[in-house]
Amino acid sequence: KFEISKPKNFFLIIIKTLTMMLGELEYTQSYMEPILNQDNTQHFSSISLFFILLFAILMPILLMNLLVGLAIGDLIQIQRNARLKRLAMQVPAPCR
Question: Where in the chain are the domains?
């Protein structure tokens, strides 16, 4: 029979929801079961939960900032090319 352990702590529920949004499939077996069953197989469980939460918060922010930076870099290149084309169009035809 398949049983699902339900965490009683609100903080653990929030972390589980965040890791599900990240696509973590083995979160329950890797992190929740050792904490809920008082199993000693996972050392420093509070630190590992902290790092999971830190990763879940920071990684989307960092990736979005990198994508925005990439888009801005492309805009600078497009503006430079447009400025050169505008200057080329302003030059009279006999001078070209």
Answer: 10-90
